[in-house]
Amino acid sequence: xxxxxxxxxxxxxxxxxxxxxxxxxxxxxxxxxxxxxxxxxxxxxxxxxxxxxxxxxxxxxxxxxxxxxxxxxxxxxxxxxxxxxxxxxxxxxxxxxxxxxxxxxxxxxxxxxxxxxxxxxxxxxxxxxxxxxxxxxxxxxxxxxxxxxxxxxxxxxxxxxxxxxxxxxxxxxxxxxxxxxxxxxxxxxxxxxxxxxxxxxxxxxxxxxxxxxxxxxxxxxxxxxxxxxxxxxxxxxxxxxxxxxxxxxxxxxxxxxxxxxxxxxxxxxxxxxxxxxxxxxxxxxxxxxxxxxxxxxxxxxxxxxxxxxxxxxxxxxxxxxxxxxxxxxxxxxxxxxxxxxxxxxxxxxxxxxxxxxxxxxxxx
Length: 364
Hints:
- The protein is mostly helical.
- Helix content is 56%, strand content 1%.
- The chain has 16 helices and two strands.
- Helix 3 runs antiparallel to helix 4 and helix 3 (35-58) packs parallel to helix 6 (96-107).
- Residues 1-16 and 358-364 have low confidence and may be disordered.
């Protein structure tokens, strides 16, 4: 264990509750990034994703091999896509080659370059977390269950909107300045809130945004031309749509299980963020598939956002061993995604019951 922890008295830990300073002292030796591990994980996962996708696309229709290829490739693409989250927490000068490689292997082919996630800082801000300025938050736990259903019903449209943006809106925006401003402000972020607008809108001709948008446009145009000329069968595009939709479905269910979503738009303290977030601590294999790249420890991530994904498991174990029994951190643990989703649904149902109860009556 980190020897720095020995200087912290148990009483101080108990009083500090969810202090990032105390937590960092306990796990201070785990913050160093391991570039080799990032590259190994990305390359191996990408190899599995693309190889399994080839099996899925070429296997006989409705065969067991086709379904197996769909499942493996969908989970693998989901995994490599979530590296965008790690990139968002890297310094601008950190692991530049890895960022470039990820965008070539994943970001551009999926039409979601890593620049789309530069808005992620708002999700960790005490001022913006859980408010309308947080594009990654909707008050599911403080709304009717229909809000959850509506959210899930939008999944099939996500791949279509990504193609529409890259193939139609991007080239049009180059000749229509107002459209370019709207595109960068309201349609260039990997968020779940449909009303989200960037607080810091990139310049219309920002070089990095221009390169990424041109790359996505050229990629989408090339695929479209190959389909139009019969080089790629149209049924292949349908299969790819199902594959991407499956990966997005995994990610959106994971998103629902990441927080309690009980904020009604008010600012929360750092401790409030942590308590509104969830660690999934159940079966290691199933949980690793459903919450790749360390996302199972989402409460811990909000406690210490700069902790790399490969250190989260060890850090969580150390905190569970060293923090006192009454530490609020322990309240953020949940056994499974299904338990977290069930709790979210119960919270939403209770909120609906309270909302429809006659004035002066308490709902049961």
